């Protein structure tokens, strides 16, 4: 490998590339990346470092305010440590967000590539289906499905993906439709490459930029949606904590224990804002039209 | 115009068909399917259920069932609520005004504030306000609506005592003023996300309009800058906003459901959640279909309005 590239003119490593340079100049995107890294590490290693288990019930210490005693973020109505629950909930919420994004992006990309490359009635059927799904308010569809199916974390992930793939499909379809007219695709066709090869090995890699941006924004959306469904009581079920279901029931204690509502909501907002900042930074960094360097 | 109307109408009908197929699929995913109301009845044997299934025609092929379900929907027979035995459409109709009021007042706030921020941001590019509104919009889009509502209740109802924490009226006081007092917080909470969306779209639409030739011409003719912006730029930038209003309907309904829950607002969203808790599936299905139809109708009206205002669209 070294022998092959050694003779090539000035090597640029991936971190020296234009995209990375442009991304790192956007301090909001960097802030988002730092926050998500921090949050992820805290959720992975935090629970082991805290003095309390997320399921440990201490009825003598119910409704402790934050920063009292060993309970850094206070306790909930059952006397469980909120810091511990917040980090355990973060594992669930971030995982649901990440895997829902992965599934939604895969499905959206598949539909988008096939619709964009095929054109004709295949395109019409697929894209009108996209419009059909987009006609429903997401939360209505999500709740109806959550009640119909068992609300386990896996199922919630699947349902969120099922209601969140349309945006990706639209973006990919538009991108593929314009890419398929380009010379390299014609060259591929003349070489006798198969349709699947052209669609997924030639066109798809060139559409990666918009897909990555859409995927990042989909994580933000998925985390938010999980929070909505769980807040309403139809998502992740207790005792398994998620940021959304920690807020379920917080409203009745708003006067006496406002931290029950404030803390998990702040965690959701920070995580979602961070992903939105990263997505926005990636959009600027990957968008060729924004090329000012 | 007639050709445009016809084409657009046809598109809406096709979309309606697709939406109904999605809805029918969800209906059949519900445990027990359309038989759910009998599934938990202990006085009923498996044989009874099978007999009812065959009476209701559930042993027929799926596409026959779908066609019958769809034709009953078209005739306005959306089934009866398990909860109170009323027709589903009657139940929904009772809850629609409250939701429309909430959505309407939120849209007025969002359009007013969002358009202003968008225009200011575009005419004063890279100013402090432009920068703050860009970052602010991204944060506003990330705040869960229900959390914003809870914080609002904590600050304005519990701490300051300025605004009521929920419901549409104080008991025993049915005046319009009392209702408006209750409307303030839910509509602002619901508007937040949409202020962000409107300001982003308005900003880019204004920037597009500003770089047009006719703006240069107007300036060259010596038209005062204020008039150039208000008449030539904003007038053209507002055009795409009409379509945006239609596109926003599903997201407004999603926000309304959450807002209504937090503020005990007696609208469609609350009805949807209550019906879910009671396993009142006919109402759940009815609301699901009703919200999608509302979206399709809103988009149709928006597109027709744009075509009426802008001849370039209908002639294209």
From TrEMBL, chain A:
GO biological process: peptide transport; protein transport; transmembrane transport
Transmembrane segments: 27-50, 94-117, 129-148, 154-172, 211-236, 256-279
Coiled-coil features, chain-numbered ranges: none
CDD domains: TM_PBP2
Recorded topology in the membrane: Multi-pass membrane protein
GO cellular component: plasma membrane
Pfam families cross-referenced by the UniProt entry: BPD_transp_1, OppC_N
Lineage top rank: taxon: Bacteria
Subcellular location(s) per record: Cell membrane
Family classification: Belongs to the binding-protein-dependent transport system permease family.
Protein name in UniProt: Peptide/nickel transport system permease protein
UniProt source species: Salipiger marinus
From TrEMBL, chain B:
Bilayer topology term: Multi-pass membrane protein
GO cellular component: plasma membrane
Compartments reported by the entry: Cell membrane
CDD domains assigned: TM_PBP2
InterPro entries linked: BPD_transp_1_N, MetI-like, MetI-like_sf
Membrane-crossing residue ranges in chain numbering: 12-30, 98-119, 131-156, 176-197, 237-263, 283-309
Protein keywords: Cell membrane, Membrane, Transmembrane, Transmembrane helix, Transport
Record domain ABC transmembrane type-1: where: 96-302
Principal location class: membrane
Entry's Gene Ontology BP terms: transmembrane transport
Record keyword Transmembrane present: yes
UniProt xrefs under PANTHER family: DIPEPTIDE TRANSPORT SYSTEM PERMEASE PROTEIN DPPB-RELATED (PTHR43163:SF6)
Membership in a protein family: Belongs to the binding-protein-dependent transport system permease family.
Protein name per its UniProtKB record: Peptide/nickel transport system permease protein
Organism of origin: Salipiger marinus
Native organism taxonomy: Bacteria, Pseudomonadati, Pseudomonadota, Alphaproteobacteria, Rhodobacterales
């Amino acid at each position: 490998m070294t022998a092959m590239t050694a003779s090539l003119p000035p090597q640029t490593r991936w971190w020296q590339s234009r995209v990375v340079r442009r991304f790192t100049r956007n301090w909001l995107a960097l802030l988002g990346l730092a926050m998500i890294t921090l949050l992820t590490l805290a959720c992975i290693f935090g629970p082991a470092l805290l003095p309390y288990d997320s399921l440990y019930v201490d009825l003598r210490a119910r409704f402790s305010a934050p920063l009292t005693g060993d309970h850094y973020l206070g306790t909930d109505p059952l006397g469980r440590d909120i810091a511990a629950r917040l980090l355990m909930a973060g594992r669930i919420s971030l995982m649901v967000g990440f895997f829902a994004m992965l599934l939604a992006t895969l499905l959206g990309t598949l539909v988008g590539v096939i619709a964009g490359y095929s054109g004709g009635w295949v395109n019409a059927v697929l894209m009108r289906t996209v419009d059909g799904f987009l006609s429903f308010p997401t939360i209505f569809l999500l709740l109806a499905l959550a009640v119909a199916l068992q609300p386990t974390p896996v199922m919630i992930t699947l349902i969120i993906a099922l209601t969140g793939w349309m945006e990706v499909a639209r973006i990919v379809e538009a991108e593929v439709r314009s890419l398929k007219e380009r010379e390299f695709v014609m060259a591929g066709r003349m070489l006798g490459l198969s349709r699947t090869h052209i669609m997924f090995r030639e066109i798809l890699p060139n559409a990666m930029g918009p897909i990555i941006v859409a995927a990042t924004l989909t994580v933000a959306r998925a985390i938010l949606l999980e929070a909505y469904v769980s807040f309403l009581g139809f998502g992740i079920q207790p005792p398994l904590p998620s940021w959304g279901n920690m807020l379920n029931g917080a409203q009745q204690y708003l006067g006496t224990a406002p931290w029950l509502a404030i803390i998990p909501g702040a965690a959701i907002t920070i995580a979602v804002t961070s992903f939105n900042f990263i997505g926005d930074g990636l959009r600027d960094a990957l968008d060729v039209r924004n090329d000012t360097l | 115009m007639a050709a445009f109307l016809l084409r657009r109408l046809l598109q809406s009908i096709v979309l309606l068909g697709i939406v109904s197929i999605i809805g029918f699929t969800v209906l059949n995913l519900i445990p027990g399917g359309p038989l759910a109301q009998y599934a938990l009845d202990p006085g009923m044997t498996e044989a009874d259920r099978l007999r009812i299934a065959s009476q209701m025609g559930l042993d027929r092929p799926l596409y026959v069932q779908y066609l019958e379900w769809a034709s009953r929907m078209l005739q306005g027979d959306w089934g009866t609520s398990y909860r109170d035995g009323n027709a589903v459409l009657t139940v929904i109709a009772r809850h629609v005004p409250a939701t429309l009021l909430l959505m309407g007042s939120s849209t007025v706030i969002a359009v007013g504030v969002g358009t202003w921020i968008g225009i200011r941001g575009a005419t004063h590019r890279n100013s402090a306000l432009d920068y703050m509104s860009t970052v602010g919009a991204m944060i506003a889009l990330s705040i869960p609506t229900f959390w914003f509502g809870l914080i609002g209740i904590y600050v304005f109802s519990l701490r300051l005592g300025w605004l009521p924490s929920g419901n549409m009226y104080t008991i025993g006081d049915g005046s319009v003023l009392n209702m408006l007092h209750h409307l303030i917080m839910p509509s602002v909470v619901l508007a937040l996300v949409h202020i962000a969306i409107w300001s982003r779209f308005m900003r880019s639409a204004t920037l597009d309009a500003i770089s047009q030739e006719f703006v240069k011409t107007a300036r060259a003719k010596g038209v005062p800058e204020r008039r150039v912006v208000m008449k030539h730029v904003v007038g053209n930038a507002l055009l795409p906003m009409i379509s945006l209003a239609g596109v926003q309907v599903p997201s407004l309904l999603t926000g309304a459901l959450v807002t209504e829950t937090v503020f005990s607002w007696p609208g469609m969203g609350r009805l949807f959640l209550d019906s879910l808790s009671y396993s009142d599936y006919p109402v759940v299905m009815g609301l699901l279909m009703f919200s999608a139809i509302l979206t399709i109708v809103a988009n149709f009206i928006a597109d027709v309005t744009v075509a009426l205002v802008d001849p370039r669209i209908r002639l294209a």
